[in-house]
Task: structure prediction
Amino acid sequence: MTAVSPAPFAPAAWLKQTGRAWRRPAMLAAALTVADVLPAIGFAAGLALGIDQFGRSPIAAAPWLALAAASLIARGLLNQAGVAVGARQGRAVKRDVRERLLTDLFGRGRRSGGRLAAVVEGVESLDGYYARFTPLRLAAGLSPLLIIAAAAVASPVAAAILLFTLLPFVLGMILAGTAAAGESRRQFQALERLSGLFVDRVRALPAVLAFGATDRVTAEIATASNELEHRTARVMRIAFASSAVLEFFSALSVALIAVYCGFNLLRLLPFPVPETLDLGRAFFVLALAPEVYQPLRRLAAAYHDRQAAEGAAPALTTPDETKPVRLTLGDTAPSIRFLAVSIAYDGAAPVIDGLDLDVRPGQVVALVGASGAGKSSLLHLLLGLSPLTAGAVEIGGVRLGDGVDLSGQIAWASQAPVVVPGSLARNVALADPTACPGRVKAAAQTAGLTGDLERLIDERGGGLSGGERRRLGLARAMLKRAPILLLDEPTANLDPASEQAMLETIREAARGRTTLIATHSAAVAALADRVVRL
Amino acid sequence: MSRRSTGRVAALIATQRQAQRRRLRLAAAAGAVVSVAAVGLLGLSGWFITGAAFAGAAGGLAVQSFNYLTPSAIIRLLAILRTGARYVERVAGHEAALKALARLRPQLFHALASAPPECALALSSGDASARLVQDVDAVQTVFVRLSAPWALGAGVAASVLLAAMATPLAALVLLGAMGLTWGGAAVIAHRRAEPAGRAAQAAVARLKDSLSALEAVAPELKAYALDGWAAQQVAEAAAVRDRALIDQAQAGGWMAAWQAGVTGLAVAAVVPATHGAPLPLTALAALAAIMGLESLAGLIGALHQNGAAAEAQDRLDDLLPDEAPRVRAAPHDETVRLAALATDLSPPARLGLFGASGAGKTTLIERLIGLRTAPEGEARLGGVDIADLAPDARRALFAYAAQDVRLMDGTIRQNLALAGPADEAAIWRALDDAALAQRVRADPLGLDAPVGVNGERLSGGERRRLGLARAYLRDAPWLVLDEPTEGLDAATEAQVLAALTRRLSERGQGLILISHRLAPMAACHIRLRIEGVDADGRVRMTRQVEPAPADA
Result:
């Protein structure tokens, strides 16, 4: 495969691309936000004319005040509709991105603890972007101009003043926007680090406690926590500074309009203007002045959402999916051939170098060797968990490679079977959720798991001794009907008597399946058809 | 879940509030200034224009006597004040919140770690992460919104005052409208926003829990073709959270709609209520009413976030134990006495434990070390029953290499550093004694090679030996090893055992060893067979005089 240098990642483009499937709800949300202009104008008109008429007669003001009240009510309802549509759009995009991330995460079949923050915190940040930020973007461009146009109907000069205060602001925002991007990325990384640190140290808590290292680990967490605080503070400062600029121009516009209108009404303007105002029109323009900036202020408030999403975006990408072809082996035990196989992790020296091994169908092969010799690595090769740096592996004559994997065809008892919180029966049934409880019970008993199958085990495997965890792995391997059986140190942690009892079970489990057993025990090696020393 | 407002977390939050009080006071003052300035800016502008309209219409003398300089100056001043004060309020408020949270997180971790072992070790890592990240974040609003009452009070006072300048009736109408806004918002918050907020917090914890539990077993899930199922499980947990967030957002939308609606009606009511007052004051009252009701926004925002914050605080409270720990004794010396032994054991004695798997060997030593609560009468340390000893007092006596080794996601050096600071020579000696030095030297990064999440880059035997090297680096009277040579071939086992005995005699350390194998047991002076756990929770054991049963 030729290496192609990837194009530099552009978060904004990725975010746009990701939301493409939901353009219609997005446009609806944007339209609802722009439509907010109408009640705003209605309110300003109702208030201005109401006050104007009130000076003459209270009754005449009534319809205008009613218009003002109705406008605000309509505004509230429009806003609520916009929130609802936006929220649903946010959820739809999140669901899609999360599904891709999870399929990739679990599809790899490898531990990737560092990516947990992406699935939770990273995806959450998309909510603000799609639900709040994108609908406001169109409105921020269009609404101020619409309002200024409405103001121009009453007073062109006032409209010009509003336009005058608008333009420099827009230029300033463009400049400020670019500064925040890098900070957001760093903030998200700090959040990832902190989140990952917590998970890791809490998982290792028994060791931390045993070594009396609580204070030291607490200090580590304090450092990461402070780092997050610094980064977040920096992002916030930029956000607040840009919104302060916005606030300033907004307040300035109100002040300028007030002064201009007042002086115009007093006929005291030092320069000639092509209009003379009356109270109604002046008030209308004054009431509209804050509305010019309202969409921009809302956008600025949502700007943080955009930065957060752009900061998280690099972590949310998944490589293009190549659907792996699952090799179906049927029920007959296949042959397994290792041809000049080498396994090396991450540029270190190879753990296995140029191994040739031919396993006949249904044969039981024991792999023995010193710790670190590569026994587990060889088993992991069939599971796609260790990298094949040279050579090839053939199953039943079919070469394993990119896009071809064996998942679902292997019964595997790993060295450290991991438990999911739940009952013991549930843990055994993990290997085959379609199995009926009777089979689950039978598998558990054959593996030597005694006691109440419904007893609860926590994430740390509390409730199971080391030997029982091995038996759990074995029970899973026996429950799963698969033509290949892989056992990784099946009798480790078992006392000699239990090991003897286990031998018969292993022999039974290996019947009719091609079996590879990694072991140190001579007793287990003795029941194999062939012993290979690594 | 019960509400405990006087829990430990509330105390920690109060301490942080105290620590940040200067910033919080600044934020509160600035918030008040913002409200007054906002009310004043718009209200005064309306008054000014209306007054100018009348004066202009009257012409001549009225214009001359109209004081236009002062109001226009005040208007410009208020514009600047509002902007500056808003910036100060937000920066001060958020910085106070961020700094407080940064202090709170390590304190919570420390409190969790110091809790009795059955609390501390019972929490799953995903759930712990949710509490320490998401729940602490939700508590953030508790700090940020501390300035809200001041902003609210100042805004209400300013706007009501200005309305009163028109007629007292207008002020009353305005107050009534404010009460109505607050009341309606509170009802919507209570019925919609609060349950949704609580649900969202609980859901994110379940999501993280499910995700981290399944991610840990990802290889097996893949092997059993269950990766699709696992992704589905997590997606379902996430969907619950999504639903709760939508509910919360919609509740917020309704609260804002209520506020807007009441504002509209309030303006329509205030204007007629100013009947009899000059029109400029009517304008002043109307615009002041609008901005006054606007200043309720902070309070409404706080009501919106209340549910999530309260739930977060409850969950954090659950994390920490309620009762103050009993004042406990410390061991007088290093002697260990177990139920089956006639005498106390002191270093350099060597005790071997063996028995069927599941009998309770690991349980027993975890109780000794303080990783598990012990029943009374099981063992004595330094003459004191271990049930009466504080867990951390016991741990100083032991250097423990567990069977289920827990490694941190870092380098070999970092993991060894858990035992405390050590110089290079000591580190390499420990690695040599654990038969791991050659493997570490073979790696191009050496001691700085990363071990992966829980040591996944090392083989099973290598992880166990790293745990052993780590225990070697800890200076303690007793060395406790749980199956140290499991998975090693005979030659390496002999090497490790020779190094072990040499180390023990050099340092005068005592040894407590669990093993099935013959060679390690041969090194022990006293052997105990562990038979099982009795109904009363105590581990049953008998002393063995002959050597342990032979193994392969």
Remarks:
- Chain A touches chain B through 168 residues (CB under 8 Å).
- Chain A is about 60% helix and 10% strand.
- The first strand of chain A starts at residue 325 and ends at 326.
